[in-house]
Amino acid sequence: MVAPIRQHQTIADIIAQMDQVIARCYGAQSKLGYFAVLYRNVTVRVRDGIVAGRFEDAARMERLDVIFASRYLDALDRFWRGETPTQCWSVAFRAARAWSPIILQHLLLGMNAHINLDLAIAAAQAAPGNELPKLKRDFLEITVLLNEMIPGMEERIQKISPWFRILARVGGRTDEQLCGFAIEKARNFAWLAANKLAETAPEKIEQQIARHDQIVAGLGNTIRLPVGNLLRSGLALIRVRESRDVRAVMNVLQM
Question: CA 160 to CA 157: how far, in whole Å?
């Protein structure tokens, strides 16, 4: 069984903590706030989905969501205290101090770490061992929910990144094409990893997580510094026209 980290008790606790994170990022004009705002939006949608009966097992789904979100909040807290979070979160958090990543890259870096690593661990913990297969339907429903939010997210990004709008019209699903990161691929990757963790002996869990973290960190580095002159040139063009006002970006993403 995966050892739990510091846990909140309810989704309401999680949202309250996220509000504090967002306020801190807003005050410090930190780009860490970009993913924090996006993730709060997702958490609210999950909460509403649970209330509406969207998921097969509401209690289990809330447990999964709380464990899942706690991993992000714990990683961010460690980073802020000068400690070392998982490698994939380190890649995402350090990028917030760099000038070059565009808004979309910051969001994708957070999604990469949180879906590919944290969701796998949270699933294995919320439904340990033989219980994991029972979680699959609700696990997949999370992806459906995320995909439903993508058009709205893209629309908001386009308001603060005019040339992103051009690429979105020409290239289609920019969230998948700009950096080679797709939610459905991440979901499948996370489900396979969750099953691997469920099959792993307790004494080898941390070693397995470390190996998986290394892979996810590598994916993060590819998002952070994508290969190919054409892609890098495209990102540079987008960057020229993006808003550099962190608070303005957070306000738009929060809409």
Answer: 6
Alpha carbon distance 169, 151 (integer Å): 12
Q: Provide the residue type at 233 as one letter.
A: S
Q: Would residue 3 count as lying in a domain?
A: no
- How far is it, in rounded angstroms, from Cα 119 to Cα 9? 17
Rounded-to-integer distance, Cα 64 and Cα 194, Å:
12
Residue corresponding to tokens 């969230």: 175
Which residue would you say has higher pLDDT here, 188 or 5? 188
Tokens found for residue 172: 């289609």
Lowest mean pLDDT among 62-76, 98-112, 138-152, 171-185: 171-185
Look at the block and give the residue holding tokens 């609700």: 138
Residue 94 CA, chain-centre distance (Å), reads 15
Q: How many domains does the chain have?
A: 1
Range of the domain at 181: 11-254
Would you state the structure tokens that stand for residue 202, as one six-digit string? 């307790």
User: Is there a contact between 138 and 49 (Cβ–Cβ < 8 Å)?
Assistant: no
Q: What average pLDDT is seen over the chain? A: 89
